[in-house]
TrEMBL record:
It comes from Jatropha curcas (Barbados nut). GO terms for molecular function: DNA-binding transcription factor activity, RNA polymerase II-specific; protein dimerization activity; RNA polymerase II cis-regulatory region sequence-specific DNA binding. Gene3D superfamilies: 6.10.140.920, Transcription factor, MADS-box. PROSITE patterns: MADS_BOX_2. GO terms for cellular component: nucleus. This is MADS-box domain-containing protein. Residues 5-65 form the MADS-box domain.
Length: 219
């Protein structure tokens, strides 16, 4: 029975492994953007995040947009508004909120599918250990290969016995039908049209030592 280890605390130092660093950055960036989207949806705040990856790629998230938040931060004054601008801004904010909700739903679905995939992978590994003979033969150890060989040899013997049994049964059936049909013949008084057949009578009597002439009696 395997024991699961709890989540271990990650030491807050830069990772020396380049591959692990890229994977961790991708996961943490998605989580950060998700939290920012939830903050915008729940509190109606304006937010902007700009991230440069270790590979020098730029990723950003902003509500209502990165440029708007940056310009407002630089000016340190709220933008001048008019009824038309307010209407446009309200429509934009509504669209952005809807997109944020959709983004949150997609991220939640992605997390759900990820967990489901991990569970399926775990079940596959458990089944692989339990039904080891269904796996690739290259992955079996010596003991498993030996046991598989013995099982296949036993299966071969059983198949041969069953094949011999079926062959004997078919042979007996053919002999029975052959003996049943060997004594069958045409009666002397039968013909194809149902009338008396004198030739058949003549041939049968010759075999018994008699000689008949049709319509003349014995001679």
């Amino acid at each position: 029975m395997s024991t699961k280890r709890g989540r271990q605390k990650v030491e807050m130092v830069k990772m020396p492994n380049e591959s692990n660093l890229q994977v961790t950055f991708s996961k943490r960036r998605s989580g950060l953007f998700k939290k920012a989207s939830e903050l915008c949806t729940l509190c109606g705040v304006e937010i902007s995040i700009i991230v440069f990856s270790p590979g020098k790629k730029v990723f950003s998230f902003g509500h209502p947009s990165v440029e708007t938040v940056i310009e407002r931060f630089i000016a340190r004054n709220p933008p001048q508004s008019s009824p038309t601008l307010q209407l446009i801004q309200a429509h934009r904010n509504a669209s952005v909120r809807e997109l944020n909700v959709q983004l949150t739903q997609v991220l939640n679905q992605l997390d759900f599918e990820k967990k489901k995939g991990e569970e399926l992978s775990q079940n596959r590994n458990d089944n692989k250990k339990e039904y080891w003979w269904e796996g690739p033969i290259e992955e079996l150890d010596f003991t498993q290969l030996k046991q598989l060989k013995m099982s296949l040899e036993e299966l071969k013997k059983n198949v041969a016995k069953q094949a011999d049994k079926v062959l004997v049964q078919n042979s007996h059936a053919q002999q029975f039908f052959a003996s049943s049909t060997s004594g069958a013949g045409i009666a002397p008084f039968e013909s194809k049209n149902g009338l008396f057949n004198p030739d058949m009578m003549h041939n049968n009597n010759n075999n018994n030592g008699y000689n008949h002439a049709y319509g003349r009696g014995f001679y």
